[in-house]
Amino acid sequence: MIEIDLIRHVKVLGKPALYGSTDVAPITAENARLLARLLAQQKTSKAYHAIISSPLIRCQNLAREFSQLGHLPLEVFPDLQEMHFGSFDGMPFDDLFFEESVCKAVSEVDEETKLHWSQLEGFFQAPADIVLPQAESLTDFHLRLKRTWRKLIEQQVLIATKQKRTLGLGQQALKEPDENRRVLVIAHGGVIRMILAEILQLDWQQASWHQKLHIGHGSISRILISQPYQEKQRGHAVKQIKYKQLTQHVTTIAMPFLEEISNER
Question: Tens digit of pLDDT for each residue in 208-248?
Fold first, then answer.
């Protein structure tokens, strides 16, 4: 059994905006609180065995600190980064034009900066049909995450299978070790939402899925991966289990984690 926790990064420094591929830093104090929580948990039976992170610093800063202080291996998956929102990526909402303001200021504003709410609202209402200027389409985002999730799962299953086999042979045990492999994935709200939709076989093209499922900063979504039974055969190479053979269960969605620190004080 493999247990994967998908945790969303903390809030970031900057005005409200669509921060997709824009590399904006996390709020230091909140990052420190989340790190403290993770380190405290690491001393319990719920300790992690590995960390996987998005390459963006709002995720990677926490991942690297936790890796160093928790003595855990870290791997950065480039394709775990958030959806790229093109010209709107990182643009503060306060700087967007309304239709009337665009008309009035047309002579004062460069053509490339004429980003207004109607474009963004259209995307929010039909994210699968409308592609923002110079942005990644929702379809491409879905395919990227689908491939990345499969790669991540197959990698972790292979590691877990090899480790259990090595430990079992070393102890000359008749049974496989009972300990589950626990992995922490630090990523983004859109990434987590897309992974959950893939596992639950829900319609990721619907605007309601992206609008109504709130993935809070610092929240955890938990997934259990079950492997098919394999009879242990000593002296034989470990066979790689195919992705389609695995059973994936979503046990927790967006459970508050960061907020629990405040409650404990």
Answer: 999 999 999 999 999 999 876 554 444 444 456 677 789 99
Domain ranges of the chain: 2-93+115-169+178-228+245-256
- The predicted pLDDT at position 262 comes to 43
Whether the CB-CB separation of 60 and 185 falls below 8 Å is answered with no
**HEC string of the chain?**
CEEEEEEECCCECCCCEECCCCCCCECHHHHHHHHHHHHHHCCCCCCCCEEEECCCHHHHHHHHHHHHHHCCCEEECHHHCCCCCHHHECCEHHHCECHHHHHHHCCCCCHHHCCEHHHHHHHHHCCCCCCCCCCCCHHHHHHHHHHHHHHHHHHHHHHHHHHHHHHHHHCCCCCCCCCCEEEEEEECHHHHHHHHHHHHCCCCCCHHHHHHCCCCCCCEEEEEEECCCCCCCCCCCCCCCCHHHCEEEEEEEEECCCHHHHHHC
**pLDDT digit string, tens, across residues 241-265:** 677 789 999 999 999 987 654 444 3
- Number of Cβ within 10 Å of residue 26's Cβ equals 22
Separation of CA 198 from chain center? 13
Q: Which CATH class is domain 2-93+115-169+178-228+245-256?
A: alpha beta
The parts of the chain modelled with pLDDT lower than 50 are 101-109, 111-112, 172-177, 231-238, 261-265
